[in-house]
């Protein structure tokens, strides 16, 4: 890559990061992962893992894939907690490796 093109790409990246809203970056907390066994049949709005109920975030990948999991499956839940929610919500459900 020529020096001029590299400079242009770096400038575009810097401008893009500078224009991003600080409030938008602060809305989401770092996601936590929960691993456990599904202890009740998943529903469209919640999933129970190790006898703890987690809400499923609407329009997240978890809301589209919860039907693929059944009681007894061992899964990894990726949780997200936004500033507007009081409890973390599930954004992703993945079958745990080795189960």
Account of the protein in words:
The structure is a single chain. This protein has 99 residues and is of the alpha+beta class. It has a domain at 32-95: Beta Barrel (OB fold (Dihydrolipoamide Acetyltransferase, E2P)), CATH 2.40.50. Helices cover 27% and strands 32% of the residues. The protein has 3 helices and 5 strands, in the order ααβββαββ. It has a 5-stranded mixed barrel with strand order 1-2-3-5-4. The radius of gyration is 19 Å and the shape is elongated. The mean pLDDT is 81.
Provide the descriptors you would attach to this structure in a database record:
99 residues; alpha+beta; OB fold (Dihydrolipoamide Acetyltransferase, E2P); five-stranded mixed barrel; 3 helices
Q: CATH homologous superfamily name of the domain at 32-95?
A: Nucleic acid-binding proteins
Number of helices: 3
Alpha-beta content class: alpha+beta
Shape: elongated
Beta-strand content estimate: 25-35%
Query: How would you state the average pLDDT, rounded?
Result: 81
Number of strands: 5
Biggest sheet, open or closed, and with what strands and sense? 5 strands, mixed, barrel
Distance between the termini: 46 Å
Estimated helix fraction: 25-40%
CATH architecture descriptor of the domain at 32-95: Beta Barrel
- CATH fold name of the domain at 32-95: OB fold (Dihydrolipoamide Acetyltransferase, E2P)
Strand order of the largest sheet: 1-2-3-5-4
């Amino acid at each position: 890559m020529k020096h001029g093109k590299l400079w242009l790409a770096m400038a575009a990246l810097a401008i893009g990061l500078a224009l991003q809203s600080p409030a938008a970056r602060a809305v989401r907390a770092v996601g936590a992962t929960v691993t456990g066994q599904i202890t009740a049949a998943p529903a469209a709005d919640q999933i129970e893992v190790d006898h703890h109920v987690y809400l499923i975030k609407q329009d997240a990948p978890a809301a589209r894939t919860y039907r693929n999991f059944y009681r007894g499956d061992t899964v990894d839940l990726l949780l997200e907690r936004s500033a507007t929610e009081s409890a973390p919500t599930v954004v992703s459900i993945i079958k745990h490796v080795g189960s």
